[in-house]
Amino acid sequence: MRFPIKELTILTALALAAPAAFAGGHGGDGDAAKGEKTFKKCKACHQVGEGAKSKSGPVLNNLFGRAAGSVEGFKYSKSMIAAGEAGLVWDAALIQEFIEDPNAFLKEYLDDGKAKSKMTLKLKKDADRANVVAYLATFSEMPEAESAD
After folding, report:
1. For the structural domain made of 25-137, what CATH number should be given?
2. pTM for the full predicted model
3. 83 vs 4, higher pLDDT
4. pLDDT tens profile 101-148
5. Which residues fall within 8 angstroms of residue 12, CB to CB, at 6 or more apart?
6. Which residues contact 131 (CB under 8 A, 6 or more apart)?
7. Residue closest to 109 by CA, chosen among 20, 101, 41
């Protein structure tokens, strides 16, 4: 079977982009470099990277695929613990939704009008949220590809 050059180029580009786009929901379509700048707003409460420690917010290393409310030693709100117990596991889309309005997210997720998060910062701009998620993805271990052994 012969493919015209144009279609072959498109197929090759898609094949090369697919692992990054679908690797466990990591990163999404944001810009990690821009996200690093936006994350400065988050640093008052959260740390990432080697040697990161929980402050008034939990460490955000390996956030993707982690159950909500599960960082050992961090004191979460009752609502965040309940969300984790109800099955909330963080992925790019859920993180973006959460950081837009943490309290509204938990109220909807738990179907509880009294649910609250300790997090007060809200990132209202879509681009800021996507960029922060892309930045946080750089601190999350990517799932290992299965070997062909």
Report:
1. 1.10.760.10
2. 0.77
3. 83
4. 999 999 999 999 999 999 999 999 999 999 999 999 999 985 554 444
5. none
6. 30, 31, 32, 34, 35, 38
7. 101
